[in-house]
């Protein structure tokens, strides 16, 4: 009867398939802006021995669709040129052996921390310990982890796929790189590492974007309103 789309890209595809645009409700799911908020977790940074390093945070599953192999290749390239770069990787997946081998062969395993799977209630600590959020995903709608990172006041480096373009503008909330190009990703990592003076303002832009568009306490009302509408139409 109706369709919920979490981004313009998905809604557009549905219309291309013949779905009535007047029966589409568009909104990103959103996040809890109190649970995910800006901060500085020096405890984790100290535990890692990365107090003065530039920490890139990656949360996506280690699967081909999320470009995690591309992410690691980009990091290897960038880390060769910028000694302060570090990579904090959460989660896991089917490409774990490949990822670890790539880092081992490049001789930079000491610049990477594998934190494993983190409970939802503990995620905020990792966002607040990082300097920059990074995702090399080849496909996404409105990514929840991207919204969490932005709500946490992080500048971001993400692939220039349509879903991300709805959230990130170059040099505003962070940087965009060419999808499927680890060379482009490495270039943006290096650019971010050399832009320490911009990170704070970009993080503020990220938070502002999250407050304006990714507030679940507001967005969920569109969902309940749609449920009520469907129920009324069915009577």
Structural class: alpha/beta
- What is the helix/strand order? EHEHEHEHEHEHEHEHHH
> Which shape, going by the Cα principal axes?
globular
Counting H and I runs of at least 4 residues, what is the number of helices? 10
Helical residue percent band: 40-55%
Distance between the termini: 13 Å
Low-confidence sequence ranges: none
Quote the beta fraction: 5-15%
Q: Over the alpha carbons, how many angstroms does the gyration radius reach?
A: 19 Å
What is the number of strand segments?
Answer: 8
For the biggest sheet, the summary is:
6 strands, parallel
Biggest sheet: strand arrangement: 5-4-3-6-7-8
Mean pLDDT: 95
Give an overview of the whole structure.
The protein is α/β, with parallel strands linked by helices and 235 residues long. The chain contains ten helices and eight strands. The protein has a six-stranded parallel sheet with strand order 5-4-3-6-7-8, sandwiched between helices. Strand 4, helix 4 and strand 5 form a beta-alpha-beta unit. Helix 2 crosses helix 5 and helix 3 crosses helix 8 (182-193). The two termini are 13 Å apart. The model has no long low-confidence stretch (mean pLDDT 95).
Short recap of the structure:
The chain has helices spanning 8-16, 42-48, 68-81, 96-106, 123-129, 144-151, 162-165, 182-193, 196-213, 216-234; strands spanning 3-5, 24-26, 54-58, 85-90, 112-116, 132-135, 156-159, 174-177. By secondary structure, the protein is α/β, with parallel strands linked by helices.
């Amino acid at each position: 009867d109706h369709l919920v789309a979490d981004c313009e890209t998905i809604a557009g595809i549905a219309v291309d398939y013949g779905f009535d645009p007047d029966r589409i409700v568009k909104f990103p799911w959103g996040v809890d802006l109190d649970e995910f908020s800006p901060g500085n977790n020096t405890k984790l940074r100290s535990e890692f021995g990365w107090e003065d390093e530039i920490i890139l945070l990656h949360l996506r599953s280690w699967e081909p669709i999320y470009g995690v192999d591309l992410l690691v290749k980009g990091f290897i390239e960038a880390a060769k040129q910028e000694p302060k770069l570090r990579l904090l990787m959460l989660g896991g997946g089917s490409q774990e052996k490949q990822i670890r081998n790539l880092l081992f062969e490049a001789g930079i395993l000491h610049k990477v921390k594998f934190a494993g799977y983190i409970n939802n209630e503990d995620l905020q600590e990792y966002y607040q310990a990082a300097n920059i959020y990074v995702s090399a995903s080849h496909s996404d709608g409105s990514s929840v982890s991207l919204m969490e990172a932005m709500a946490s006041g992080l500048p971001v480096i993400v692939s220039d796929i349509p879903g991300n373009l709805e959230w990130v503008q170059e040099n505003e909330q962070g940087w965009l790189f060419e999808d499927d190009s680890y060379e482009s990703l490495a270039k943006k990592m290096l650019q971010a590492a050399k832009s320490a003076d911009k990170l704070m303002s970009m993080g503020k832009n990220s938070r502002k974007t999250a407050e304006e568009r990714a507030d679940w306490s507001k967005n969920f009302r569109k969902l309940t309103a749609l449920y009520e509408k469907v129920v009324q139409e069915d009577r």
